[in-house]
Design a protein that fits this description.
Blueprint: E1 2-7, E2 10-17, E3 20-27, H1 30-46, H2 63-66, H3 71-75, H4 79-91
Length: about 90
């Protein structure tokens, strides 16, 4: 069940389910918070929820190790382009 509370002028949603990690998100409007809570609870119940919280922790350098089928496609790129991409991503 979702819990919606107002904190520091924003609306925070927490969804807790047995055998599932706690989900939380903050919204500016209560309507958006309610909408997200309903949609997310529905996805969790149906088994369609995809946890994307770890996606920002994967670096471009780790992609070939985690997803080997993509490696040949990356290797066909010019080495200069790849080095520029790595340099850019390490700056951000």
């Amino acid at each position: 069940m979702a819990t919606i509370i107002k904190r520091n002028g924003k609306w925070q949603v927490k969804i807790r389910r047995n055998n599932f990690k706690q989900l939380s998100k903050t919204f500016i409007t209560k309507d958006n918070a309610i909408k997200w809570a309903r949609e997310t609870e529905s996805k969790v119940e149906k088994g369609l929820f995809e946890d994307l919280s770890q996606t920002n922790s994967i670096s471009l350098k780790e992609i070939p190790q985690k997803y080997p089928p993509l490696t040949p496609k990356l290797c066909t790129l010019d080495k200069k382009i790849l080095s520029l991409m790595f340099a850019f991503l390490t700056l951000t």
